[in-house]
Known about the structure:
This protein is of the alpha/beta class. Helices cover 44% and strands 16% of the residues.
Amino acid sequence: MGAAAADGPVRVLRVIARMNLGGPAYHVSLLSGRMDPARFETLLVSGRVPPGEASSADLADRYGARLASARHLSPALKPLDDLRALREVTRIARAFRPHLVHTHTAKAGMIGRLAAEACRPRPVVVHTYHGHVLEGYFSAPVERFYRFLERALAVRTDRLLGVSTATVDDLVRLGIADRSKFEVVPLGLELDRFLGLPAEPGGAFRDEAGVGAGEVLATFVSRLAPIKRVDVLLRAVSRARELGAPVRLAVVGDGEPRAELEALAESLCIAGAVHFAGYRRDLPAIVGATDIAVLSSDNEGTPVSLIEAAAGARPMVSTRAGGVPDVVVRDAGLLVARGDHEAFAHALVALAGDAARRREMGARARAHVAERYDWRRLVARMSELYDELLSAR
């Protein structure tokens, strides 16, 4: 089977657990909508977005992706719902008759790959890891169980993809599969809105965040979840201000820990210097108002917020987590150890006091991500990969 199937374009069934705000939903929307429709007919299957999280289903519409719903599919482990989700996805798959099934994220990887086994003829199967939850998230017995499942699923998967070198390194170390079965395929994003931003920060969001003359705005963009360690970031900003840096912080995102984080800002006496902005869609304007992009996670696949900030020519300060070093390369920002708010504070102090260095790092960051994370590169590589796997049948 070559670039097209005998009965028309190659049918690709793409499965993701949820279309919430974040890199995976962005990634699958672009792939589903931007691959050549003359060669690939794609159906994107998504589960429900949990309460308290913002939906990115509009991205599928923006990029022209055809979206189907599996209402029982969700990231949480719920055996009864998982069985129902498997029936839903299997029914969709059998009706669509895919030549290739490509799954994204852990739960969709399990449900989608099991559904592929029920199709006749069996399709080519690809799975993308946008990070993983096999270490540091659950108790040891649960982690061992999840690793067992991933190893079993990997045996029947034709190609395993990771969005960063660190993600693949982790999975090989954990024994999920031999390295020869993996390939690193970085995210591809539509960056033109950010690449055109002026290097000098400005705009109404600075006023909204209360930034005064001579002050520096550090901006965090992500959903609020414990793994993002916004508590570390707040302590770092508090310490940086104690050291004399005129830093203010904007937290763009929302989630269950928000009230707790606002209380922590109060207890650190920095509530007046921290702006909790909630979920926002005007991200180019937010990046344009930013002096330093920040991220404090303990674990990351590939951080979309840092890629977009880098495309906007903003320097970065981040913890050295997961795929972050693929984005925050040398001279594009500063990396510190996870959980080390003191080191994070000193990095903020260093950049807050040196506007020329911020400009130089921002220029380096923009050049790096423009080359590595453009959506056209992603679509081209995925098209080649699908052709390779289908031709090998």
